[in-house]
Amino acid sequence: MSDKAVAITTGEPAGIGPEIAVRAALAYAGPTALLGDAGLLQSVAHRIGLPWPLPASVSILHEPLAQQVTPGRPSSANARYVLRLIDRAVLGCRRGEFAAIATAPLQKSAINEAGIAFSGHTEYLAQATGAARVVMMLVGGGLRVALATTHLPLAQVPGAISRESLGATLTVLDRELRDRFAIARPRIAVAGLNPHAGESGFLGREEIEVIGPAVEAARCEGMDVDGPWPADSLFVPARASQFDAILAMYHDQGLAPLKYASFGRGINVTLGLPLVRTSVDHGIALDLAGTGTADPGSMLEAIELAARLASNLASPAVTQAPRAHRSRG
Question: Which candidate, 174, 109, 108, places its Cα nearest to that of 144?
Fold first, then answer.
């Protein structure tokens, strides 16, 4: 693991982010840097019976709140505070100050209510780093599930999928599985968009006209890609275990089965950035904020994976886990 700290953004201050960030930083074996309002973090630590000051392995990078916080009640007044935490973490990674970033959850609506167009961490980080193509992937429950589209209304998904966009996504996914996850030749399954993967065109033609050709083009470029598969059978463990990652066409198609398999221990990874970023698989849990009962498991998993991925990039050691022979029959 790197000697550099993993930067932890503490997210929406009225949610569980500050609590799970402090708990996870204390549980993590390596150095961390908590980004947030120092007074808020101190009050959280006192409320849940944690020691203060924190040990030397956990540093605090103070960013002042715009408005005092009431647990469970997000305020748009703190929207820019939340974004400053992300900006500071990105700056630190690009300067070589941090090994990676692990982000606590935030409240998108509070940011939008402040008049700031914001659709999610993934899109914000892409813009902040100038990344040409980013891919959202969740890891957990024995699965790696990447998304062809992210935070879109379902009605907009078909129009957002093209041969070109799928090809670019598969290129990023294949490269990052090699470089960050140290898999020599990743095996990627691609889900169909329609029920039964379109049923030979009777339930939709996206598989024939868009997804299938994108898969074939990826194969021609040397990638080990298979599909389109019917999504309702692709996530069955016996089939999913044959692949290193699955590319789902839209958010809930991929994340519903993954969260069923791993909730509380899943990790969100943003692929395609010039830095390592991971996050939790859950939201801000306003009903738990201030109660001291939030589970930091996913946050700890995110920190640990961020450190491993950063280490792989620094010292690549390619591995290839065995998989059973697959057949589409």
Answer: 174
